[in-house]
Design brief:
The chain is an alpha/beta fold and 273 residues long. Helices cover 41% and strands 21% of the residues.
């Protein structure tokens, strides 16, 4: 099952459109969810019963609009909707336990002015039980390419597993980007970095022989390199943690940076349990 969280925003509907297509590609049902406060979900009598009813009706309207968008995108899709009680972050993290993929809009309603990413997307991306795709705006003319960022860490294999599978499903090219920096004067030989990339790809090429792969080794900051590489792409895939991440941080610095600046839908691949 693919689960998508909606909040009535434009980004939420874009997330539904992306999730609907993905569900059809994977031959999975789509579950559309919307969260309201726990007291509103469970209050049927008393002084505030009418207010709670009004909030539930508003939530159902959000779900109905999202379902209409999903069916308009993919008429053959199996869709269900669910009104979830509680904080949206906690509710989505809980429902991710039953999902193969969780999709959310990366700009939500009610955020503090100046915030680049919604608090729900930010709170869920590093804590969900499954992989998460964040959608803010779908590229108007995607170039038919998926971009995967790797760094040589163990988590890179999860990124490549996801990216190769997506490229195969969509029949698109896969661009694998390794961005690196050198603390001193820049070396002239990238042999070690190229060898690392080739070793990481070796098994994947055998398992997905039909995927056209482009290797790109870039000297520069990974966030900037990946943002540039992913402009106009169908999807950017990164790990939730990479090299040198402090144990207390939920998201690695690269995924954290791209959460704010990705130019296309961003898949954050969770560490496999």
């Amino acid at each position: 099952m693919i689960v998508v969280g909606v909040d009535g925003s434009h980004a939420g509907l874009e997330a539904v459109a992306w999730a609907a297509k993905e569900a059809v590609l994977r031959k999975l049902p789509l579950k559309i969810t919307h969260a309201i406060t726990e007291w509103a979900a469970g209050t049927d009598t008393g002084r505030y019963a009418e207010v709670a009813k009004w909030m539930r009706q508003g939530g159902q309207s959000v779900l109905a609009a999202a379902e209409d968008r999903a069916r308009a995108e993919q008429a053959q899709l199996t869709v269900e909707t669910a009104l979830l009680p509680g904080d949206p972050r906690a509710a989505l993290i809980a429902v991710s336990e039953e999902a193969e993929l969780l999709v959310i809009g990366s700009h939500g309603l009610g955020g503090v002015r100046g915030m680049l990413v919604g608090s729900v997307a930010h709170g869920v991306a590093g804590r969900a039980a499954c992989d998460v795709v964040l959608v803010s705006e779908l590229p108007s003319l995607p170039r038919g390419e998926i971009v995967a960022g790797i760094d040589g860490s163990q988590a890179s294999q999860g990124v490549l597993d996801f990216a190769f599978a997506e490229a195969e499903l969509r029949g698109t090219r896969l661009r694998v980007v390794y961005a690196w920096t050198w603390p001193g004067p820049e070396p002239t030989d990238e042999g070690a970095e190229r060898l690392m990339v080739q070793e990481a790809l070796a098994g994947q090429r055998e398992r997905h022989p039909g995927v056209n792969v482009v290797e790109e080794i870039v000297q520069g900051h990974p966030v900037e390199a990946l943002r540039e590489a992913a402009t106009g792409a169908d999807l950017l895939v990164v790990g939730s943690r990479g090299r040198g991440t402090f144990a207390g941080l939920v998201l690695g610095s690269v995924s954290q940076g791209l959460l704010h600046r990705s130019p296309c839908p961003l898949a954050v691949i969770r560490s496999r349990r």
